[in-house]
Amino acid sequence: MATAFPTATILGYPRIGRRRELKRALEAYWAGRSSGEELATAFTSLRHATFDRLAELGYSREDAAIPDNSSLYDQVLDITRLLGATPERFAGKNGLDLYFALARGDESVPPLEMTKWFDTNYHYLVPEIGPETPISFADDHLVQRFVEANAAGTVTRPVVVGPVTYLALAKAAESAPDGWQPVERIGDVVAAYREFFEALGAAGAPWVQVDEPALVSDNLGTRRTELAELAGRVWADLASSGARPSILLTLPYGDGNTALPAVAGSGVDAISLDLVRGAAPEAGAVDLSGVHLVAGLIDGRNIWRADLAAGRDALESLKALGAAGLSVGTTNSLQHVPHDTADETWADPTLDAHLHEWLAFADQKVSETVTLANGLEQGWDSVAQQIADATTALAARAIAPGVRREDVRSRTGALTEAERTRVPFTEREPIQAEKLALPILPTTTIGSFPQTPEIRNARASLLRGDIDQAGYTEQIRGEVAKVIKLQEDLDIDVLVHGEPERNDMVQYFAEQFDGFAATRNGWVQSYGSRCTRPSIQWGDVARPAPMTVEWTSYAQSLTQRPVKGMLTGPVTILAWSFPRIDISLGESADQIALALRDEVADLEAAGTAIIQVDEPALRELLPLDAGRHADYLAWSVGSFRAATAGVRPDTQIHTHLCYSEFGQIIDAIAGLDADVTSIEAARSKMEVLPELAANGFFRGVGPGVWDIHSPRVPATDELVELIRAAAASVPANRLWINPDCGLKTRAYPETIATLTNLVEAAQAVRGELAS
Prior knowledge:
Shape: globular
Low-confidence stretches: none
Mean pLDDT: 94
Structural class: alpha/beta
Strand content: 5-15%
């Protein structure tokens, strides 16, 4: 019989640390400044700080209300470790050396491929599974975390990625036969999970949480209808074990109704549904009498204060479903939001009080679950004041100045298809070729160069008032000059200014747009030790003044080679911010696009011949429901074109995409109508290019040949082979040579070494093609 489930819970908590403690511990270990024991101590300390905070906010330490979703690097990698599913090239490595080699690679092996976790900005490490990949219950570190926390006084709920999701996210190992799929190893994986669950049960764990987001997605190669059938069998098998903990099966990030009938009858003890992005089942549609229902009413993907009155009404309606029990939860793990609004101040004093009233970060979301749970248990009169306060704050936000601007709305409303359309590429291409006079296989980078401690110190000094704007500008100009000279010395063909003035590729623009606010401590994990501070789109968006023209023009004044203007596209600004939810994403994207269109026009007027508008998040926001793909691709592509279609034919528009399963959006990539598209391709060894070629993509392409998310320096010969592979699918006169992504996170020694090799490789293949 299932152990009683708490009335309030979350599905996970931010795990990088309130002040990025895990980031600092990891990077100290990687740099050799600390030992494995010191890393383990820091990790344990951070986990217990989380348990303590959740207890302070009202969660019991005794009933598994507190989830343990901690990870040293990535939750999918943790399952690879648990299963011992290690590709053969990592043979001989053990412990942390193996774990971090899988994540980051080393001098001898490249890492696992990395891509986006469903439609979020989090990156996971893609398992490589073949017929011979070892799979067993090979590592009990997750069991030991429960034992350790229990001994210290907190009965946690271990959180793991589910077996169906793990295999649905995996890629076939290179050694696998053509057509073989990782899901064919489901029997071995289920056997390993059964042993794992039994080990947790033996250790005294009352509950285990298993996340199965693959069951809400149509974007994984296997549609959710097929995965639901598989999940029904898998979970009936796993639930049949008598020695296991009670199982909470979660269906986060989307509508779980397709999978619900299969898993509700499988024997699992509780099911969590995302009721923000998905709908509640109709009464009588599914027999829930044997399961406890966790209602995901608190949005774990965004930072807006919850409508508690609507939550109250939803909970009352859910009683009619006849579930064995009812609890309040978040839609998904809170790893996608910052810790606490109390850590924040904003530069604009008129916004400070408003934003605190309007927002809910992780700690506030925990409190919202507690409020609704108290109402559910004790009666709604007991929380009437909290509900009224939330209603008042939401009403005040709707009428606050700047939330709605008629000048902005009238401009987006007047956008025409002609304003989203350039002359055909076949007409632009020869004009641009004559103007730019670039060699075959031109080399370039994606935009940013390493952000040195000196740059960060200068930015911090400006914020503290230690230096004035003139002093800061002088330092940044010096860095730009250094970057331009370095690229000329390396013989790169198309240069960038290096972006030393930018704190982040989204935040930099958000801080200069009307309608956005930036946080001070709102850190969210992107992958591993990498964190970002998503900006907050709170109102209608406009550009009060030029943002990049000064820096691009200065860089161009230092060289005769073309310098790209660098902008972040509207979809990516939305995806990597917390967007408003009171208007459509399409309307927000068009507002941002028109602000960028003004910037593009100013860059062109200043003489910039190449303008890159990055959209690395284009695939990221693709809805998990296939029925919504067409609408999404229409507005996302339309917003990019609104930003870029106002230029002359001789101005070359570039864009950049990364971490994408490009096959699903090839038509959209073509629809962007960029003259050159650079794409992430190094870890996947150019596997996207034949698909692009087969679909008739005929514009310029720059497949990345350097995986910048790994510290290793690829040799010239390795890069030559990648360029040759690219040239087999892309006509040489339309092939560009570049890294996968920007170089902000890399150090200068590895940057110089790899760019040297990259230019040598490009020139070598250039010579081969000319002979």
